[in-house]
Amino acid sequence: MLKIKQALFLIFGITSFIIFYIGFLNYITTEDKIIGIGILAFSIIASLGTIVATFYISNNITKPVESLARRMNEFSKTNTIQKASITDKEFQELYSLHKDFEDMAGKVGHSLEKEKQLNLELQEIDTRKSEFMSMISHELKTPIMPIKGYVQLLKKQELMGSLNEKQLDALNEIQISASKLEKLIQDILIAQKIELGKLSVEQNIFESGYIVENAFKAFSPICQSSGIDFKMSSAVSDNVYTDSDRIAQVFSNLITNAMSFVSPGTGKIEIGALDNADFVTFFVKDNGIGISEDQQKNIFKKFYQVDTSSTRKKEGSGLGLSICEGIIKTLGGKIWVKSTLNEGTVFFFDLPKAKIPVESFQINSN
Amino acid sequence: MSRLFSRSNGVSEKRLNILIIDDNEQITKMISSFLDMSNHECTVVNEGKEGLESIKTKQYDSIILDLAMPEYDGYKILETLKTEDPTQLPKIIILTASNIPLDTVRRFKELGIASCLQKPVDIDQLLTKIKAVAG
Fold first, then answer.
1. Which residue has the higher pLDDT, A1 or A95?
2. Of A71, A102, A364, B63, which has the fewest beta carbons less than 10 angstroms from its beta carbon?
């Protein structure tokens, strides 16, 4: 690509050569030698003048342009610019260009700096908010202990004296509410840990069948009493390297969700595991009301709750699925959903297969 | 040390001598009521320094220790009690609302801590743990 300097020298060089050539032609063709010498001298002076002017113009155009390019480059890297050495003795347009660029860079730089500062402040607020939530959740756990403890104690009628049916019913309600509160606090704490990247996991080798079976055993009684057809189908039993307690929590959240979307009596929930190359894909499938495509985009966001219908109560904190996603990601997998409205929903999550030879490990299947 | 035997629900059970160190009076009152009713002897201390003195002056079948306490906390107590031989450490059950990272749980085990429980804990589970720890 041609530089301004080169273009100027090319144009003015040719011009000065033409001026000199015309003068020279005049000198050799004219009969009056004095006029010929005069014209030649004039043409030499004119062409030399053109060359000098070229140097001057070139310096005064290319230098400020090059310096502007340099300053723009510097600004794009550092968001700040040094004061230019350009003066108002230069070409006016170029001087204005520098001046306008300086003004613009000043304003943009200021905005960027402000934005950076705001971002830092927001991050700090966010961290403080997370720490505050952790602290509050921790403080809330302490008073729950005497509430739950005394309820348990009061129910020990052989120790505390007998209660009538109404009193027992009231105690049960307190117990249910205390348990819900405890679960909510635990959810907030886990969500905070995920957000702060502090979720601790203890990975080991487990059979996928064992994981599915555990979830099945945990939820069979409640599904049965709720009139839900709960099935387990494990097509594979590969070994996965994971944290079984955390996965139990994921299954628990997904099955609890599924239970709230199916109808008692006709509701079906199926859990299982499928082979998927380097991963084992676990699933929780239901024949519930389904989740619309729009809602599917948001369900893994914190505090998002699927709008079921006006007849159903919204339960829970809206943290369940975001916790599932956080746990699965921490364990090196991914979670996704497939759903059709009024037909049902399937939640899938991948867990990496254990790559270490299984024989060398004692498989934890107790 | 009292080694009394009590009869509860027709089953002969060893009467255990338990120390609870926790600054939360409602929690200590609840646990001690339950343990008393379950025919175990229970000593309550709501302050860390006093708790340490109690551990040093008397032998208990099991000690329930809270970690986060004002002034003299559970960590300081553990630091003072630390022994070369972990089996020589009193039988301590840590009962805390704080989140204990897995590394810390492992370090507690190395120190000879018998168990580490998170509040709120089921009182029946707590009693089962106390009995297991007391042997």
1. A95
2. A364
